[in-house]
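# step 3/5: fold
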Amino acid sequence: MPVGLLVMRWDERVGTQITAKYPEELNMTEGTLMQIYSTHEYSGEAGMISLMVGSLNIASYYTGPQKQMYIILLLSLDDDPDAFESGLADIARIILQNTSDDGYISMIPSLYRRLSVYPSLSQEQLLAITYQDEIKRMIINRLRDEGVVTKSELSVWLKDTYTYGFIDIDAILFELIKRDIIKEASVKGMPSELIFLISDLLISRKPPDELLKDPAKKGLPEKLTDDYRNAVNEFFKTYKPTEEDNLKLIEILINPQVYETIRLLRTTIATKDLLQKLRKKGVDDVDAVLMTLWENQVVQVFQGHKGIEYYGLLSDIGVSQVFPKYILNTIIEEYDVKSKANRVLVEFLKVLEDAYYAYKAEKKLQKKEEKTNEEE
């Protein structure tokens, strides 16, 4: 688990300056700070480095020469710095978006907590964080329209369109590649690498099917089961997915305490006493979590005998990767109007074929694991 988080600037006159840190008692010597600065200077590029300085295990992210800020994460000796690279890149952008009035300083404690849980995030949380990032979302949306674009064109477009500051295009694309959302490849005759969309993200609310099958077996009194089913049915009669709502759902999923509560509520309709047991898993303020879920129409409360309250999912949150079948129509259209070179479209079809078979194999493996878990 990380020990602390610092933000350092470089000033040509005075050298290293710590502008924010958490916890407050965290200290680092001038010599260590200079070693971090020198290591970044040696590479000369924005991005993360990791180093051991005595007994200190350090991951540091440099934002580049424009702002010259260093986001330094102090780790335990058994932590793997590489597990925090994507998280550091994400919070670096958040910090840079809030430098004008030093607004990032008050955010450091929450950013530290977000980084701390990064290696333990579930697949759906990692996908949610990917889509929450504005730049990654811009890339995905453009590729939904075009399917493929050159890396150089994408880089220029992002710098012209995203006006809030720092963009580390290589780190951003690496994260999307790692999540199997895009693939980068070279095609003979093209002046730059090509970026292909190979999977899309689907985010929406979904009915809590497992609970609806038999609410009484999941903890709800028999006389309240019809009320529960009716509440869910009424909600989904008028529900329509929107990006605004999806981004709210993402905020819920990436909150560790809220997510832990949702995980429990996916398996049972719980009383307040049962939910209080989540304190052992780090849910410190159950009431605040339940209020968040209620305000966002994720949870419904039902009144039972002697005033006992039962909390059931009104709508679950689904985040998944899907194979983008629709992109085949885009390829046909681009071929018809000659907006992309034939060799690019042929390569795209090959890339999609490989991605499709990999996607099917992954789904088959998931079903096998789910069946094994059910039998156990």
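# step 4/5: annotate
The CA atoms of residues 3 and 75 lie 5 Å apart.
# step 5/5: archive (pending)
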